[in-house]
Write a structure and sequence with these properties.
Protein name: Similar to TES-26: 26 kDa secreted antigen (Toxocara canis)
Number of strands: 11
Family: Belongs to the phosphatidylethanolamine-binding protein family.
InterPro entries: PEBP (IPR008914), PEBP-like_sf (IPR036610), PEBP_euk (IPR035810), Phosphatidylethanolamine-bd_CS (IPR001858)
Structural class: alpha+beta
Shape: globular
Helix content: 10-25%
Keywords: Signal
């Protein structure tokens, strides 16, 4: 009886893992992100992203607020210890999902994330909190994780700048090609609209 219980538990866990694996490509496809970002999602796995204050997890299209996303999140994945990774957070809906520019806005880019320490790396573009403009539908803020072929040198600034002009009108697919990153191996995303009271309060606007 005990062995049967253990066997059932294992089957359930495997089934849940398989369900999560399938749900990531399905969620990205349903949100039209594979087409908009021009990425391959067939083998895309789930990347855990958690905003710390208050603790809120990003999960395949859930809705978050300005308060939820004001500080840099933590992230995790099933890394390989002898590899390096790159994380990109991008918004393909600037300035609006219905009137988008021919490019994206990069909110965050971290390179050289070592496989033995999941939440460390080099901030190439510091975290920029999402603040979609008023009067627009919620934006699809998307996290993409890439496996680097080797540790990269970002210090000369020739690969990617750190000012706002180098955040706008960029494309995740182009960046991945320029840096030879290949297809993303994991991802996650959330929706966020304009939070009038919160944003106005933060900007000291009545």
């Amino acid at each position: 009886m005990k062995m049967l219980t253990i066997l059932v538990a294992v089957i359930v866990l495997v089934d849940l893992a398989d369900s999560t694996k399938k749900s990531v490509p399905a969620a990205f496809k349903a949100a039209n992100l594979s087409k908009v970002l021009n990425i391959t999602i067939k083998n895309l796995k789930l990347m855990t992203v958690t905003y710390p204050d208050p603790p809120k997890k990003v999960f395949l299209g859930n809705n978050l607020t300005q308060t939820d996303t004001s500080t840099e999140p933590t992230y995790d994945f099933d890394y390989r210890t002898n590899r390096y990774y790159a994380l990109l957070m991008t918004d393909p809906d600037v300035p609006s999902p219905s009137i988008s520019l021919p490019g994206e806005f990069f909110h965050w880019f971290v390179g050289n994330i070592p496989g033995n320490r999941s939440s460390s790396g080099e901030d190439i573009l510091n975290y920029f909190p999402p603040v979609p403009p008023p009067g627009t539908k919620p934006h699809r803020y998307t996290f993409l994780l890439y496996r680097q072929r080797k540790k990269m040198n970002f210090s000369d600034g020739s690969l990617l700048g750190i000012d706002l002009t180098n955040r706008l009108m960029r494309r995740a697919s182009v960046l991945a090609k320029e840096l030879n990153l290949g297809d993303p191996i994991a991802g996650n995303f959330f929706y966020k609209g304009f939070d009038v009271p919160v944003v106005h309060g933060a900007l000291n606007v009545v």
